[in-house]
From TrEMBL:
Belongs to the glycosyl hydrolase 13 family. GlgB subfamily. Its EC number is 2.4.1.18. Keywords: Carbohydrate metabolism, Glycogen biosynthesis, Glycogen metabolism, Glycosyltransferase, Transferase. Catalyzes the formation of the alpha-1,6-glucosidic linkages in glycogen by scission of a 1,4-alpha-linked oligosaccharide from growing alpha-1,4-glucan chains and the subsequent attachment of the oligosaccharide to the alpha-1,6 position. The gene is glgB. It catalyses: Transfers a segment of a (1->4)-alpha-D-glucan chain to a primary hydroxy group in a similar glucan chain. The keyword Glycosyltransferase applies. Transmembrane segments: none annotated. Pfam families: Alpha-amylase_C, CBM_48, GlgB_N. The lineage of its organism: Bacteria, Pseudomonadati, Pseudomonadota, Alphaproteobacteria, Hyphomicrobiales. The keyword Iron-sulfur does not apply. InterPro entries: A-amylase/branching_C (IPR006048), Branching_enzy (IPR037439), GH (IPR017853), GH13_cat_dom (IPR006047), GlgB (IPR006407), GlgB_N (IPR054169), GlgB_N_E_set_prok (IPR044143), Glyco_hydro_13_N (IPR004193). PANTHER family: 1,4-ALPHA-GLUCAN-BRANCHING ENZYME (PTHR43651:SF3). This is 1,4-alpha-glucan branching enzyme GlgB.
């Protein structure tokens, strides 16, 4: 419920403001300063009123420099008022003086509003899809002056002011205009431009001044530990990525090779002095590395502004601002463009699942539960001690949907990977009985979150074809990656958490025991095509005492390396898109920490170089062979060749797709070479070995089949007899005559 505010008293017969208005302006408690300050009617003429602390004399001028009147000081706090010689309302400049000097300022209260009735209509309806062009801080020309327009949603506030170094952080100086129908507050502040730090000073409905708030729509922020927003112009980068974007606009990503390199921008590499690389330095190093290693996409853990490094960006306070850790926002635009020109896509981790309760952030933004639920059973996240967005509020949904559109439009990102979707979908997520509120039907599903995710996906895919969304969803919620019109959530892809869990569990077992866990690797094919899956070996598997992928493999050091190479071969041959966290492509030994760079010196050692070479070669094969990617999401592209040889821990299957030769994938997950092993194959003739993870160049034993096997038709079937190297995956491609 909106609180009543003080309004301007009627001016006296002499045109002077009432004593109550003057006192309220000086105290910063007036509910409608635009009704008092600026140019106001007074009988048949006009008066000007201004609040200029420290001034002793003020003279009014038009923007063209014509003198318009002398103003008298009504209050020693800095309230001035006087009749004007001009005949029509127009913006004014003031020449202020005191005993120590003089200065000029342009009166923000002499300007009309920037937002219009159509903005009010669409904002109130929750259907405005360009909020980022209206809210936040925008450098504009307005009524003959240049300056910055500020706008922020705070419907329950008594007063909202912009504060910064341009007004000595004094909330009385630039109180904003309340657009009461929408709860949006706005003010145009002339004579300032980009680069100025600012925050909002908000008086809550109870009259209490809140801690200064950063702008929810800030496009740039100060470097932590400072938390102010910074006025920024939109990225002015001259994009040169039309070829990349046109390709993906016209592609079906389910049928394209997608191999994702997951990166934490703050710890992939560091400068020699331990500081972060800038976006330009990352572009010079990371993009060529990704191209050379064969990945198709870089996925960044959240790069939007966040105060706390160990949150890895997942507790973001500035959804619209690339973090100042890596330089200015234009630097990120240059990075994305550089990646696109090199043929590499950029995916961002996006976090609508929760937000931190830092006092400068969104929590209790206007003194009420505005972005979050008031009831902690819906508005507080027990796992992360964070707030939860109120997905039932149209303004909150609009804020988040606009943010997804913002990254796609302004920074040309290729996709959004949505974090912790399961925590959004279930009202009882991480909650005990009595700690959650059922939905209107009595169930545990968060129907408001479902509606939000569907709307976000519809708008992203509708406005930005070629951009994909990926859900990190860890349950069996149906149709995560099905279209909304078919009852799905509308994501393009879903992380296959079952694949990650089952395979890591299997490879942690000593080889002698793997025969008892054969089903861990075969079960996944029961549901492999129920969604459009990404196979994720992400940062979550190499932190918090979990070790690294290399350390998870059973056996001695040689066996660990051999098993990891074989595991990657198995994964790249398995249906689904691929994702690998940085450092795992060269078998990082130390668990990942955001506080240090990866151990790049490991590449001086042959086993680590061998793992990286395997990943590079697998990426090349995956991208160059339609059989390995073009039916990743369709059962027609997969068939078992050997599914039940648990005694030998051998698995074999066939990948196929129109326009490509079939590829057989065969894994032996024991350290015992299997000689004269018979593998059924669909066609007689030569099958060329296109990769063998046991090859000596990778650090393996070098056992193999001389590069080719011959399949023969015998006894009603076709098969080839071959050597299966120890702890290996081999791929055989049919060679037509």
């Amino acid at each position: 419920m909106r609180k009543p505010r003080a309004t301007a008293a009627t001016s006296g017969p002499d045109g002077l403001a009432s004593a109550g208005d003057v006192a309220a302006i000086v105290a910063g408690t007036h509910g409608d300063p635009f009704a008092v300050l600026g140019v106001q009617d007074a009988g048949k003429g006009l008066v000007a009123r201004c609040f200029v602390p420290h001034a002793e004399f003020v003279t009014a001028y038009t923007l063209t420099g014509k003198k318009a009147g002398e103003l008298s000081r009504r209050d020693d706090g800095g309230f001035f008022e006087g009749k004007l010689s001009i005949k029509k309302r127009q913006p004014l400049r003031y020449h202020a003086r005191n005993a120590t000097g003089d200065w000029w300022l342009t009166d923000p209260y002499s300007f009309g509003p920037v937002l219009g009735p159509m903005d009010d209509y669409y904002i109130a309806e929750g259907s405005h899809l360009r909020l980022f062009d209206k809210l936040g801080a925008h450098v504009i020309e307005h009524e003959g002056a240049s300056g910055v327009h500020f706008a922020v949603w705070a419907p329950n506030a008594r007063r909202v002011s912009v504060v910064g170094d341009f007004n000595d952080w004094d909330g009385r100086r630039h109180s904003m205009r309340d657009r009461r129908d929408t709860g949006i507050w706005e003010v145009f502040i002339p004579d300032i431009g980009a680069g100025r730090p600012y925050k909002y000073e908000i008086i809550g409905p109870d009259g209490v001044r809140l801690p200064l708030k950063a702008d929810p729509f800030a496009f740039k922020s100060e470097l932590r530990p400072a938390t102010a927003s910074v006025v920024a112009v939109p990225p002015a980068h001259p994009w040169g990525d039309d070829a990349h974007r046109n390709f993906w606009r016209n592609a079906d990503p389910r049928r394209e090779a997608i191999s994702i390199y997951e990166v934490h921008a703050g710890s992939w590499q560091l400068r020699d002095d331990g500081t972060f690389l800038s976006w330009d330095e990352l572009a010079d190093r990371l993009i060529p590395y990704v191209v050379e290693t064969g990945f198709t996409h870089i996925e960044f853990m959240p790069i939007s502004e966040h105060p706390y490094d160990p949150s890895w960006g997942y507790q973001t306070t500035g959804l619209y601002a690339p973090s100042a850790r890596f330089g200015d926002p234009d630097g990120f635009a240059r990075f994305v463009d550089g990646a696109h020109r090199a043929g590499v896509g950029v995916i961002l981790d996006w976090v609508p699942a929760h937000f931190p309760v830092d006092e400068h952030g969104l929590a209790h933004f206007d003194g009420t539960a505005l972005y979050e639920h008031a009831d902690p059973r819906k508005g507080f996240h027990p796992d992360w001690n964070t707030a939860i967005y109120n997905f039932g509020r149209r303004e909150v949904v609009s804020f988040l949907v606009n943010n997804a559109l913002f990254w796609a439009e302004k920074y040309h990102v290729d996709g959004l990977r949505v974090d912790a979707v399961a925590s959004m979908l279930y009202l009882d997520y991480s909650r005990k009985a009595g700690e959650w509120i059922p939905n209107e039907k009595g169930g545990r599903e968060n129907l408001e979150a479902v509606s939000f995710l569907q709307k976000m996906n519809k708008e992203v895919y509708g406005h930005h074809p070629g951009v994909m969304t990926i859900a990190e969803e860890s349950t069996s919620w149906p149709k995560v990656s099905a279209p909304v019109h078919e009852g799905g959530l509308g994501f393009g892809f879903k992380w296959n958490m079952g694949f990650m869990h089952d395979t890591l569990e299997y490879f942690s077992k000593e080889p002698i025991f793997r025969k008892h866990h054969h089903n861990d690797l075969t079960f996944g094919l029961v549901y492999a095509f129920s969604e459009n899956f990404v196979l994720p070996l992400s940062h979550d598997e190499v932190v918090h005492g979990k070790g690294t992928l290399l350390s998870k493999m059973a056996g001695d050091d040689w066996q660990k390396f051999a098993t990891l190479r074989a595991y990657y071969g198995f994964m790249w041959g398995y249906p689904g898109k691929k994702l690998l966290f940085m450092g795992q492509e060269f078998a990082q030994r130390r668990e990942w920490s955001e506080a240090r760079a990866l151990d790049w010196d490991l590449l001086d050692f042959r086993p680590h170089r061998g793992v990286r070479q395997v990943v590079r070669d697998l990426n090349y094969l995956y991208r160059s062979r339609p059989a390995l990617h073009a039916r990743d999401c369709e059962p027609e592209g997969f068939s078992w060749l050997i599914v039940d040889d648990s005694a030998n821990s051998v698995f074999a299957w066939l990948r196929s797709a129109p326009g490509g030769n079939p590829v057989a994938v065969i894994s032996n997950f024991t350290p015992v070479p299997r000689e004269d092993y018979r593998v059924p194959l669909p066609r007689a003739g030569k099958w060329r070995e296109i990769i063998n993870t046991d090859a000596s160049e990778y650090g393996g034993s070098g056992k193999g089949n001389g590069g080719v096997v011959e399949a023969r038709a015998e006894g009603g079937g076709t098969s080839a007899t071959m050597l299966l190297p120890p702890l290996s995956t081999i791929m055989l491609e049919f060679v037509p005559e």
